[in-house]
Amino acid sequence: MTDLSTPTTAARAPARPAADAWRALRRRPDTVIAAAVILFFAVMAAFPGLFTGTSPRACPIRDARLDPQGWGGAHPLGTDALGCDVLATLVHGVRPSLLLAVVVVGVSLFIGVTLGLLAGYYLGWVDYLVSRTVEVFLVIPLLLAALLVLSLFQGVDLGSGTFEVILLPAIVLILFGWMPYARYVRASTLEAKNLDYVTAARSLGASDLRIMVRHVLPNAIGTVTALLPTSVAGVISAEAVLSFLGIGVRPPATSWGIQIEQGSEWVTGGAPHILLAPLICLVATVLALVVLGDALRDALDPRLAR
Amino acid sequence: MSGDTSAAAASSAADHDGVVGPGTPLLEVRDLAVEFRTPEGNVRAVDGLSYRVAAGRTLAVVGESGSGKSVSSLAVMGLLPDTARVTHGEVLLAGEDLLSLSRREHRRRCGERIAMVFQDALAALNPVHTVGYQLTEALRRRRGMSRRDAGRRAVELLDLVGVPNARGRVKDYPHQFSGGMRQRVMIATALALDPDVLIADEPTTALDVTVQAQVLRLLAEIQAERRMGLVLITHDLGVVAGMADDVTVMYAGRVVERAPVRDTFGAPAHPYTRALLHSIPSSGAGGDGEGRRLPVIPGRPPSPAALPTGCAFHPRCDTARDVCRTDPPPLEAVAVDRASACHFAAEVLASHDVPPPVEHEEAAHD
Amino acid sequence: MGRYIARRVLQAVGTLLLVMLLLHLLTTVAIQLNGNPAQAFFGDKVASPTQLAAVEQRFNLDDPCFDQVGNPCLGPFVERLGQYARGDFGTNLRGREVSDIVAAAAPNTLRLFCVVLITWLALGMVLGSVAARRRGSTGDHGIRLTSVLIDAFPVFVLLIVYRYVVAVPLHRWAEETFGEDSWPPYWFKPSFDADHPWATVVVPGILLGLAGSAAFIRLVRAGQLEAYQGDHVRAARSKGLAERHVVVHHVVRNSSVPVVTAVGLTFAEALGGAVITEGLMNIYGMGGVLWEAVRNDDVGLVLGIVTLLAAVTVVVMIVVDIAYAVLDPRIRYD
Predict the structure, then answer these.
(1) Which keywords does the record carry (chain A) (predicted)?
(2) Which residue among A72, B62, B254, B365 is buried most deeply as judged by most CB within 10 Å?
(3) Neighbours of A (≥3 Cβ pairs closer than 8 A)?
(4) Residue A184 CA to chain centroid, in angstroms?
């Protein structure tokens, strides 16, 4: 037939989607502020000494529930019900939370991407196995699974190093947190697999591994990247809940969740700052991450932006 | 079967005045211009389009994708997306300017007086409603037809467009139909309110070649039977040869040639039309074993955002001269009922560079 | 349609069995890693000899497989399945049947989820539709900002603030303004009142629903935007139908398909949220019981409830799949 339709110049695909996304992100002030907030807390996690000289474990009971004294005072944000410095607890509580979040999201991402890629690429029994496993794990809500497993393993002693205190929550949150990545990556792998250049690469004799890593993965990674900040935020708030219940980060390490739990009793007792200080930090972190995730979603998926 | 089609078209043409003749045409588009808002500024997608369709006549609007042919039909139906607007022009339906009506009033004329068949029936039919529902949706909503009458009418409509076992299929969903049957359903929905004018936007592009001919024949029969005006938007000159009485060729949003089909195919008056006719593969030429290469039009159609100066076609034109690069040619009469927008229209017309004849649409499909 | 449902139900039974196995394996590993098997069910608590004996009997802890780390202990698993099939989900520390506790607590959880579901659909449909219709307007941007803010306040934070900061003064104000016996004071009561289950569950339910609604708003907006640009909407308009009809029958109707799917996916998350909500607001529902069980180191009860809730999730997912098939004929005839 006399098909005259030729593509017009309208189909001007960006040459480097990552670079375009980066440029779009830098232009938005909210993204810049969000990134600054995250950076601030990251520095706090890495170098708590920069922010406070007081130890969170020095808790003279006679100094309990002091009001915030402002910068320059001995206790800028006051003290909690046991006399511990609120600022010091806050600063030292960042590290376990952030470390947990980064470890959980990183490992879940790795597991999810690997399984999703394999399932989408090979289909057949690999796909069946992965899909059924995803289905089984999805049935148990993350928080319920965490409550159960952490209660069960409460008696198992793992030590008190930086990693040991977060090990158990990390394992549970990874175990029940990798499925979304696997689903997304599987779906985009199915899409990318049939693209012409992938077929071309295959017909030229490229190995499966090379096709997956070089051709399929870059296509699949966009949607998943947009999920990351929100996932980190999710882990941080999940950790707060678990710590609130006393089964998250283990004492003597502190975390915002533990502080919130202790502070909640004193709001009406005349010391609202014990609750508000960690709560505000938690909201600020989560908000910054969510804003970043939102911007990233726009930048990487312009279909939804408009 | 194409013999029937041509005969039907010819007989309807015989007892009618030509499009450019006297009498009020059913649908007349005058000097229509449509602009799109884009981040890079306003882009004119259609510029100064005019055409007329009379009862029982078929007008083909021909052009490559991006030439503005589909956008113009959306403008006629009042279906332009929010980013587009009509900057000037009139759309006269039996003498009434649709564009001067409110959006709501304009919408009321659609379906009733003028209906549209879309290109991709799978996308244009709602997947979650039964075919019967979609066939009679307008009848029930707008004419207040009862459920039972509507059910009966749906079966009639499916029968009319030749869907086998119509009674059994009204409760089926679009995805349960084959491509050709789906397009027949699409045509039936457009016919539900007995429109006077039908706009068919590339009605067969998404179909298999063998099914295309059947659907086109159905359209031609229905049109002849009901004496509808038909605007056929297509990029397929084979279809034009088999179906249309008149043809309007568009390039980059503008009309470049307007003529009765027979005249154009005999002697095109615009280099673009000539090039289009030359690029039709013909079965006769292919069979003589000469291994002749099919001529193609060099280059690609320009983006509406960056039109060349002067005549928009000049970068791809084989007869372009200096004046073509600077002065846009006006659309001027070159013979009876014929107009061309080329500085050298008379020359092109006189050259009698006639491509191999295209008689039936099947010829182009082999 | 019938065959589709049958296939889905069969598949769900398989999933449920695998879920049980997963929970069993997790429990088994915990028991094996714990020096003293029975102690795994009491956390840091010191259990009485009768409690220890009860647990040992219930979970067959005498079975030697519990001393071999890595042994999947399939024998006790089969026995456990038999117990579940008879409706026996164990007892709490005080010897009360889990099934009894759940029967008493479930109605309140159902009440909570009614409120949550209404909040989701109302917020999602209304705000999502408005945003899609006025794409790019101030309203659209406002709704978008709202959904980002909603995401930024996890249920946990919302409820802590509500319960400890907002509810008390609000409750006092309502009592003073409307009188102690009127409805408003109950709405803002900072804890559950078994005599007024609906009134005291409304605000927590709305807060929990609010926390999950951002996903719905986004989904409805994206779905309707796609529908507005779809050819079938254009075709419906070309029939000259009124805009209202087109929006209801072609835009909203079509975008309801992904929304139903989202209800299924968000349900599991909302169950977690329900535990937090019921726990913090002292609502005597399944989540509240679970919350208390975790606080009291009553691991047997935790296990029973988590198993039950997983079963409930499987059922909800079937229902969602069937609703999906009803709404989208393309699924039905696969």
Answers:
(1) Cell membrane, Membrane, Transmembrane, Transmembrane helix, Transport
(2) B62
(3) B, C
(4) 17
Is residue A59 within 8 angstroms of chain C, CB to CB?
no
The whole-angstrom separation of Cα B247 and Cα B144 is 39
Q: Which residue of A has its CA nearest to B299?
A: A6
Cis (ω within 30 of 0) for the bond into B295? Answer: no
Q: What is the distance in angstroms between the Cα of C14 and the nearest Cα belonging to chain A?
A: 9
pLDDT, chain A, mean? 81
Task: Please state the separation of Cα C63 from the chain's center in Å.
Answer: 35
- Residue A93: strand, helix, or coil: helix
- The chains found to touch B (3+ Cβ pairs under 8 angstroms) are A, C
ipTM attached to this prediction: 0.87
Q: Which of C135, C237, C257 lies at the smallest CB-CB distance from B107?
A: C237
Fold of the domain spanning A18-305 = MetI-like fold (1.10.3720)
Residue A32: half-sphere exposure toward Cβ, Cα within 13 Å: 6
C49 has pLDDT over 90: no
**Residue pairs spanning B and C at CB distance below 8 A:** 89
Identity of the residue in C164, C297, C306 whose CB atom sits nearest the CB atom of A148: C306
Contact A2 B279 (CB under 8 A): yes
What is the sign, positive or negative, of the torsion defined by CA atoms of A257, A259, A265, A270?
negative
> What are the tens digits of pLDDT across the range C31-42?
888 777 777 788
User: Residues B227-247: pLDDT tens digits?
Assistant: 899 999 998 888 888 889 999
A10 has a pLDDT exceeding 60: no
**Global pTM value:** 0.78
Residue B30 backbone phi and psi in degrees, to 5 = -120, 115
Regions of chain B short of the pLDDT cut 50:
1-22, 284-289, 359-366
**Chain B residues with CB-CB distance to C234 below 8 A:** 74, 79, 118, 124
Residue C68 predicted with pLDDT over 50: yes
Contact B218, B184 (CB under 8 A): yes
- Look at residues A245, A230, A236 and name the one whose alpha carbon lies nearest to residue A144: A245
Structural domain spans, chain A? 18-305
Q: List all residues of chain A from 226 to 265 with a beta carbon under 8 Å from chain C.
A: 230, 233-234, 237, 240-241, 244-247, 260, 264
Look at residue B40 and give its three-state secondary structure. coil
Cα–chain-centroid distance for residue B77? 13
Residues of C in contact with A260 (CB under 8 A): 160
The C-alpha atoms of residue B9 and residue C107 are separated, in whole angstroms, by: 72
